[in-house]
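Exercise 7. Given the components listed, write out the predicted structure of the assembled complex. Treat all entries as one system.
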Amino acid sequence: MASDFKKYKEILFREFREYYEKMPYDLSEEQREMDQWLDHLETPYSYEKKALVYKGAARLCKVKVFRSSPFFFELISGRERNTSQNGYPPGPGFEGWFTRKTQPVLDGFQKWIAPYQDQDLIWGCVFTDMAHHTMGYERILATGFVEIERQAAGHLEVESDERKRAFYRSVLTMCASMKQIAEHFAGEAERMALEERNPDFVENLRELARAARRVPYYPAESFYEALCAILFLKEMAVDLEGVAVAVLGHLDRILIDFYERDIRTGRITYEKAKNYMAHWLAHTDARWDLEGCDFASTNCSITIGGCDTNGAVVWNDISRMILECYDEFGFVNPKVQARITNRHPEEYFNKCSEMVAKGENIFSFLNDDVIIKSHVRMGKRLEHARLYSAGGCQEPVLDNTELNSRAFIYISLPQLVNTLWDKELDGFFQREKTGIICKQDYKSFEEVYQQYFLRLEAVYRRLVEKVNSYEKQAGEYNPCVLISATLEECILRGKDMEEGGALYNSTSMPLVGIATAINSLLAIKEIVFDKQMLSFQGFCKLLKSNFSSDQRIWDYILNRCPKYGDDCKDTNEFARRFFADAARVTSGYQNARGGKYEASLFVFYLFDWMKEHVGATPDGRKAGEALSRGMNPTEISGISNAANILSALSKLDLSAYPGTGVIYLEMPVTKEKLGHDYIKWTLKGFLHAGGSALDLNLLDAETLRKAKEKPKEYRNIVVRVCGFSAYFTALDPQIQDEIIGRTFVNG
Amino acid sequence: MGNRLFITKIQRFSIHDGPGIRMTVFLKGCNLACRWCHNPETQHASQEIQYLESRCRFCGTCVGLCPTEAITIKDNWRLEREKCTQCQKCVSHCYAGALQTVGEYVDTDTILEKALEDVQLFGKGGITFSGGEPLLQAGELKAALKKAKEKGMHTAVDTAGNVDWECFREILSYTDLFLYDVKTVDRKAHRDYTGVDNQIILRNLKKLSALEKGRVWIRMPIIHGLNDRDEDIGRFLDYYQELRKIERIDLLPYHAYGTYKAKSLCMKEEKFEAPSKERMESLLTQIREINENTHIL
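Answer.
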């Protein structure tokens, strides 16, 4: 049985740190050897070239086993310490070996998108999502690679299509490599056990060695083996695939059968299982440099709660032990994505709320009823839609069946407003021959509105065309045989996930700054058309001057114009129309993998990253200021009341957005700490309002100011940045200021 | 047109005005004039023009528009209230929001519709009528409370209690909870600092606490040197013995936000001192001896 995590926590973190702080380890020689293999490889198929990475890992890489951990996961592959955030640009290790060679596939796309990125109209540099994937964990736990190997061999016997045959050959190479790598871990642990003096660590090493001889090649037979296999798979993918697997799985659903079987047979107790869980969860925080990284999004997430494939609510001992581990050991990562419904027991709400009320700002909450419905609306089967995880931050991905591109290209809705009048921004519409011209005047607000959506549609449609044309080469650019092999449909079809091998193949290009855009259109309506205070041209001049040419009108815009979130009937109606139209024009297109484009408002930190070149917007926002966050009201509107926000939210239909839209609520820490009941009621309010994703922060702005000044005294403050949590004092000063400046609920 | 209440504002997601997440309606007009008042805009029972200096652009628009030349800007913005006819022209043209009208009649049904929406949203909460002194609008208040109860909402009334017992009797059947302000038990201090005697207040609270169905939370603003001394607390504890059933006591340490609002309404600004954290903790400990359910807000 594993060493006592509580007892050895400090030793474990130290042991990890001593190894990880020396990363990246130089594997250039090994990669040169792989270059030679590639030179001698005679195949036109990218899979077989990529398979050299798996083979190389098995033959050339050493493994690192930690004496204080009962898990095996660290392949010495040359990657950087904080790597799992992105698959692009390619890292220095094995993970980047393949995509460094196929970079020319990306060149044309990057050249095309660069001017629009420079304008902050579109953000993105790759044509496919390389950072928010999951793996078919359940399949590997149930059957092991041995079954995948058997299936691939079977297909190979009957398949005549050379391309598919190459895919199956690569799967066989990958499976053999995974088996070999796991055996390296076993061998290393056995060797270390002979030298280890601490009996608790000897036990870790022996247990680990036994497990590594079995999983993931053979099916997992215990709770512990299942945990071993998941972690091994995830880390191998990050080490070797060139994309970041963010998702560690819907743990309480996946693991409960293993746990209950072990309990029945007397193999485990709740406390022993929790000890394994603590070791397992600690892996992310312990390997990352969380304090030395100013944007420490580890991109690792676990999902809890929700339901199973039959719709039965998931809340069990695994859920409990996970939350207890975070609560007791103060973990910041992996991110906890809590799927909730009104059908979940009070115990679940109470536990999460108590943790939030203590300032453990580690959760995202996802509303099952809205998210599942949104996927069914896109044609996915209910039993599949029920099994979603949050892929990284809050962007959902269906377990076992889906490969999606959800967070790789973003579109600025506010900058699109400014294209209505600013000829200097019209480059996209001219260069891309959209036939849309920058008008100098509009007869009615309706014409402005229609023109706006014509433009959004034109931008989206052109992006779809471009992404699709490049995505056809995704299988050449970076086939992912390891991840693909864990998805049943890829094996059946003999197709890599990058080529559409998965059952569902969705794409989203999220819309940034929706509240800024809505308020901007509302301001145009009020100032130009309803009150006729300025002509359209006059308004344009005011914006050009960054509002300096008429202070009074600027004041009017800020204080008198309707604003999204004010919960007035007309504003709610306009917002409802805007949200519905935005979903309509960004949904339903076919992508190159046989899937569909799905609407999304998941914007991560882009509200800040896309602000610099967005001039003054009609809502009163000055040039260069941040755009609205997630689907929150704008900061300058001052609308901070949670009742207003949720009430306005309740008028919208978020099930049109399978990519989710996030509401952020910054709850103030009151003099007497906010009781957990208030958090619980707010969660229920979020569900009642029909929100899709919620990030809650319990903060005290004054304490944060002090923490910025004296970081050493406030090391342990954890904040939600945007879909991820981090130590406040480790963040970039500008991000710290952005968080301090957020409008607090009732602030 | 249904009933109307004269109010200053509606606060949603209110978490300190009774159980749950509530909507608090601030009624305008009070028969106390507490010198530390946190909400001085609720004191006068008439509409007022509020001037928020921090928002003023000193553009002079209001000066030019005022038909009675009541507004001047020399070194400071100034309103001669006796000249003001409340025509609201200055307010309607102040885009910066420096001038605002405080006090409006709002239809009860509109208020209750929104409150009900919030109750349904959060599942736990209700509506609180605060002020000012809501019982000065007892008739309208009763109608509002009655309707709220008909809609199944939890109701609370935050009162300073300086009204005839009859006013309480009128609303008892429709009020689930009274938030009852006790400023000080000391009669002279009460007169000095609130302008009124406290005997009716203390008597009403006694009656209320003795009622079978009455639910009362006491709320005590704590002002350093005024009602936080040992003798002040001693008197309160003595008085407390005369009370029957008090569900909870909230201690509200003084804050100076009211002075900014007082200035904005050309009212006398008076600053007091907030009690120290340690003092608050000590009061909490003392008062918890008589009522465990005591909290600092």
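Discussion: Chain A has 30 helices and 15 strands. The mean pLDDT of chain A is 94.
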